[in-house]
């Protein structure tokens, strides 16, 4: 089938690479592998890759450098795979242009979900895109971007302008993690001081309005030390 999606795995640990390769082949993806950054970059530039799974700790080059290189000419989805649990590193990868990350060890189901989400968002670069206008619907929560209307189980929810901007941004990127800095920049503009306090205060208000139990949110999930991720649509 020529419609198979091609996934490039750049990972130097052979057993992890093989595990991912086998799992993805079972899901009917076409897999190409590279064990070094330079090999991966040369395959990526060949033009036959739809998505990249990238290990950050590669023998010849920092994975962040690979992301920057690819982002200089392509917006193809990049999902970072890393054993490292340092939040700062994940934030850096996302801010360099990675679409998402997955932390080792992970299961096939989680990996598939990340890939599907990244593929879905890869064509959403323009805010004029149809996907951006279609309402977000998840577990009784409906966000109508055109009408600027939020309803929860049929009840109107009043959000301030800033709160609506935050919720819309997250909903239009449902399933993806967005870093604190990228949310701050999108909502308040590029000159906002990168201080998470203002975001945390607004998020607390949003959650009070949307979540049944703000301590255990079901719509807007916290990625500790990194940012927020809106639940996938129904
Ligand atoms: Ca490695």
Quick rundown:
The chain has 234 residues and is an alpha/beta fold. The chain is built from 9 helices and 12 strands.
Shape, please? globular
**Class per helix and strand makeup:** alpha/beta
Distance between the termini: 29 Å
Q: Helix share of residues?
A: 40-55%
CATH structural fold name of the largest domain: Rossmann fold
CATH uppermost class of the largest domain: Alpha Beta
Q: Could you tell me the strand content as a percent range?
A: 15-25%
Largest sheet: 5 strands, parallel
H/E element order: EHEHEHEHEHHEEEEHEHHEE
Radius of gyration: 19 Å
Helix count from the secondary structure assignment = 9
Question: Do you know the CATH architecture of the largest domain?
Answer: 3-Layer(aba) Sandwich
What is the arithmetic mean of pLDDT?
Answer: 91
Q: Which ligands does the model contain, each kind named once? A: calcium ion
Q: Unreliable stretches, pLDDT < 50, 5 or more residues?
A: none
The count of β-strands is 12
What count of domains describes the coordinates?
2
Fourth-tier CATH superfamily name of the largest domain: Response regulator
Q: Major sheet: order of its strands?
A: 2-1-3-4-5
